[in-house]
Specification:
The protein is mostly helical and about 100 residues long. It has a domain of about 60 residues. Helix content is about 75%, strand content about 0%. The chain has four helices and no strands. Helix 3 packs across helix 4. The longest helix has 23 residues. It is flat, with a radius of gyration of 17 Å. The protein starts with a helix and ends in a 15-residue tail after the last helix.
Length: about 100
């Protein structure tokens, strides 16, 4: 049976620590986006690094909370996004996301 990284991380560090790590990486991603938008030197590489870190730790959240539950919610949100973009049968090109 293959070892699944997310299972091994949860076994070694515990669910709370894995979620803490995801939260920390998400915060670092927010800062990296700000640096990139302000044109800070080296910000593109920083942003790439933080995106990679978030992608890795995001998988911990999928594992801990239930991949099927997260994927179901993701699919619902993708349908809503397609509708907002006017893609598919129910799309409305005049709708804009809240706050815009």
């Amino acid at each position: 049976m293959p070892i699944i990284l997310e299972e091994e991380a949860e076994r070694k560090w515990g669910a709370q620590t894995c979620l803490d790590q995801l939260q920390e990486e998400a915060g670092e991603l927010v800062a990296a986006i700000s640096h990139y938008r302000r044109g800070r030197e080296g910000a593109a590489e920083e942003l790439i690094e933080e995106l990679a870190d978030v992608a890795i730790t995001l998988s911990y959240g999928f594992h801990i909370l239930g991949r099927e539950k997260v994927e179901k919610k993701r699919a619902e949100k993708l349908i809503r996004l397609c509708e907002r973009l006017g893609i598919g049968e129910k799309g409305n090109r005049d709708e804009t996301p809240a706050g815009e």
